[in-house]
Specification:
With about 200 residues, this protein is mainly alpha-helical. The chain is built from nine helices and no strands. The protein folds into two domains: about 55 residues, Homeodomain-like (Arc Repressor Mutant, subunit A, Orthogonal Bundle); about 140 residues, Orthogonal Bundle (Tetracycline Repressor, domain 2). Helices cover about 75% and strands about 0% of the residues. The relative contact order is 0.10.
């Protein structure tokens, strides 16, 4: 951890966030492979040794970013799940939050998701466990809906993956069929009612 004058936990976390933000901006502008640790340190206003205290390798920065994103969405979903709502309403609210997050961070998500897929298999496994935990939490919500008779019997994991793939296609399409809100309504209609007449 940082040397010299001891920092408070709040100051440590603030510096970590500053380094992360500077690095992510460089990754978006230059690409992950093209941005150097020296450039990241300079952009964050920290020396090389301080940078390495927080992130021993460049991959650690990208992994930390992905993990932070998933943790954020998990926290949002947990708050919605804790509310007194039907399972269907919970899923719809989580999907809405997810869509709004994707739309607000479109370029960052697109660029950094691509970069994250280029990491080594071992590095990807470090953040995949958080993604899988998020998916599993939503799967349990679908299972609850099935048990309560709100949802028909389906494969919960496939249902969740399909729902979020549809959200991605709504955000990143080059042929929108309406506003994001209108496409969200259509996506939820297709998910919950299917295509059969």
């Amino acid at each position: 951890m940082p040397k010299g004058i001891p920092l408070t936990q709040e100051a440590v976390e603030r510096r970590r966030r500053d380094i992360l933000a500077a690095a992510i901006q460089l990754f978006i502008e230059k690409g992950f492979n093209e941005a150097s640790m020296r450039e990241i340190g300079k952009a964050a206003g920290v020396g090389k040794s301080t940078l390495y205290d927080y992130f021993p390798a460049k991959e650690d920065i990208l992994i930390a970013f992905v993990v932070d994103e998933v943790r954020h969405m998990t926290t949002v979903a947990e708050a919605i799940i804790a509310q007194e709502l039907s399972v269907t309403e919970k899923i719809q609210r989580i999907m809405r939050e997810h869509l709004e997050y994707l739309a607000a961070n479109k370029l960052r998500y697109l660029r950094l998701s691509f970069e994250a897929q280029r990491l080594s298999k071992e590095s990807q496994q470090r953040f995949q466990k958080y993604r899988y935990a998020y998916q599993d939490m939503l799967c349990r919500l679908v299972e609850e809906g099935i048990q309560k008779g709100e949802l028909r019997k389906v494969n919960p994991l496939l249902a969740i993956r399909t729902a979020f793939t549809m959200l991605l296609s709504a955000v990143f399409t080059s042929r929108p069929t309406g506003t994001l809100e209108e496409m969200l309504v259509d996506v939820m209609d297709i998910i919950f009612k299917g295509l059969e007449a």
